[in-house]
Design a protein that fits this description.
Structural class: mainly alpha
Radius of gyration: 26 Å
Length: about 90
């Protein structure tokens, strides 16, 4: 037992994680680039007007609803109150 056993090389994991990081970073970059192009085109055609403001407000509303209902904001605040009512025997309030 002199400790001269060969050490296996692990070259697979860093390569896979590096490729994954590059893929994610590239996707984010492309998404930001398309967003910039979208903003430039929108500003060119609509500028700063009431129509542009109404358009952006209409686009934001589904995102607000999704954030409240779909991503757990409402349920995260509702469930603790609901369970405390049930534990206190206040079924009618729950």
């Amino acid at each position: 037992m002199t400790g001269n056993a060969p050490v296996p090389e692990c070259t697979d994991a860093p390569t896979k994680s590096g490729r994954g990081a590059i893929a994610v970073g590239s996707g984010i970059f492309i998404s930001k680039l398309f967003g910039f192009i979208r903003e430039r085109v929108f500003a060119h055609y609509f500028g700063s007007s009431g129509i542009a403001d109404a358009w952006w407000a209409a686009l934001r509303m589904p995102n607000v609803v999704r954030n409240l209902l779909g991503e757990g904001t409402l349920s995260a605040s509702l469930i603790p109150v609901y369970t405390s009512f049930l534990q206190e025997g206040r079924d009618r309030d729950a």
